[in-house]
Amino acid sequence: MRKRDRRKRLAALVLAAAMTLTLTPAALADGTSPRQGVAWEDMTYEHYDPEAFYEKVDQLKELAGGEDAGAITALYDELYDELVLAYTYDTIASLHTDMDITDEYWQGEMLYSDSLVNEMDDAFFTACGQVTAGPCAEAFEAYVGADAAEVFKEYIPATERELDLLDQESELINQYYEELNGSGELTYTYKGTEWTQEDLSGRKGDILYERDPDGYWEIYDGLDKALNDRVGPIFTELVQIRTELAGIWEYDDYASGMYADAFGRDFGPEDAQMLCDAVKAFSVDYMDGLYYSDLWSWSGDVTPVLTAEEQLAALGRYAGRIDPKLEEAWRFMTKYDLCYLTDDPDSTDTGYTVNLEEYDCPFIYNRMYNDCQDLDDLSHEFGHFTDDYFNKAPDPIASIGSYDLFEIHSTGLEALYTFFYDEIYDEGADIAKFLVLGNLVESIINGCIEDEFQRRVYAQPDMTLDEINRTYADVSREYGVSVGEEDYSWQYVPHNFESPLYYISYAVSALAALQIWDAAQADFDEGVAMYMDVLERGAYDDGYMTVLEACGMRLFTEPGAVEDICQPVIGEMEKLERAASRAAAA
Fold first, then answer.
1. What percent of the chain has pLDDT over 70?
2. Which of 423, 455, 448, 428 is nearest to 566 (CA)?
3. Is position 41 within any domain?
4. 22 - beta bridge partners?
5. What is the pLDDT of residue 104?
6. What is the pLDDT of residues 212-261, one digit of tens each?
């Protein structure tokens, strides 16, 4: 049997979790839309000229030492609006770049906007920080809110070196995606014949695997190594840049700083290692068994294969059966064309949900694979969309929410949609459900692998590329993954390049999603109520651990909790595998 390397595919399901806005139960209860609708085609983009913005920043600095609170708050509002506009332009440029990676204009605009918003952020936060130290500090805090004022007060103006490093980071991330998107052109010569990834993953590769499995794996590794030679140096340079930034930001270490500041976590790297150790206790058996199930290679056999329009229709058909609020969000999304689904080979192989602040709406981008897992991917992003649709941030510029909670909004909805797969996929439902549940289990395992790998690398930032490849292999083996002395799979995980230390969010959120699934197995309405309880608490007021405890869910820090949560779904996967195999043999 040919093993499908799902870690590559799962890694491509990138989520840039939107900075969603704080939800209050009342916002849901009145049944009214909190959003203003603007269609994607009506959204505009301009090459932003910051000259007037910086002139106003200088004016705010001058006012900071005076007592004219009215003038200060009025100027603050003007600057705030301009910064939100620049953020939105940056997001639009990024979306267009992903929609067509060959478009050099949008690539240039994205890099320009990325750099610009870093500089504008710094200027704005620096000026506001001066206001918090002046005579109008109390009035300013009353106007912007205590949380925002505290952020401004603690802000340390960026040095020229810091801004330069951030620009370098953005350029390197863009280089990585260019190399990744161009990896299909890489070749490996075996017995005088050049092979590409397309050759290997198609019928030609199937034939080779049957006749010469050693040759198949030699080509597989050779193509991976060819990409590693391209993107590996990008990663090592990013590690150096981020290590220097950690020093500038006065982090004790990069990992703990990112946990606390970037992702709003109420648990630290030490807690994450406890989770990693607990996952290793069952992952070895999983990797030796269900990971190699034939069902993983049957996704293309599940019918119907839904088009983009059919996926959206199916999403809406069942949204209201989960909860009326989901149907409301779906109607808003489809009315204003706020979901871009594509299988264009010139689009970026990723999926995410972002917020377009100027237009007060979320937006989904998702690359399709043209199999039954597309609907799962879409339901994941729709969970983020629904959260973002109802939730209002205390401050879109200064607020940091819990990304671990954001991810429950998506993975929890994936789990609930599986209860309609019998209607959607009929005879293929067992396979489709197996894939969703397996992906959630593997999100836990892979989330721990990536996080432990990243923490080890950033603890020793001078690792060579060969040492990095060996470290990934060492970590993977601890979880039962069968690999050689070096493993290149980490290079297919964009988070390693763009969002380091994020991946553990997938693991902890999947643990919550599986509890939602388990509750729904016994009583669907109970599972829905658990999901909506998490959603309605938002992601800004409290952290992951606090919210789960309040919702009556088990925490991964409880002895035995991780295995207790995972075993029911693993048992269900075994049942689905047997049922699908019997159906195929009949």
1. 94
2. 448
3. no
4. 392
5. 95
6. 999 999 999 999 999 999 999 999 999 999 999 999 999 999 999 999 88
Query: How far, in whole angstroms, is CA 445 from its chain's centroid?
Result: 16
Structural domain includes residue 552: yes
Closest CA to 440 of 301, 286, 314, 307: 286
Query: Please, what is the angle between helix 104-132 and helix 160-181, to 10°?
Result: 150
| Residue 586 lies inside a defined structural domain of this protein | yes
- pLDDT tens-digit map of 519-554: 999 999 999 999 999 999 989 889 999 999 999 999
Can you give the CATH number for the domain in which 527 is found? 1.10.1370.30
Give the dihedral sign, CA 474/477/483/484. Answer: positive
Q: Identify the CA nearest to 178 among candidates 346, 8, 351.
A: 346
Q: Which secondary-structure segment (H or E) carries 365? A: strand 361-367
Domains in the chain, number: 1
**Tokens representing residue 537 in the block:** 């608490």
Which residues constitute the domain of residue 142? 47-185+196-306+402-586
Q: Is residue 339 part of a domain?
A: no
Interhelix angle 429-459/465-478, nearest 10 degrees:
130
Pair of tokens at residue 350: 């990723």
- Say which DSSP state 22 is in: B
CA distance 153 to 14: 34
**Residue 361 in 3-state DSSP?**
strand
Q: How far apart are CA 403 and CA 499, in angstroms?
A: 12
Eight-class DSSP state of 354: E
Burial of 408 (0-12, 13-18, 19+ CB in 10 A): buried
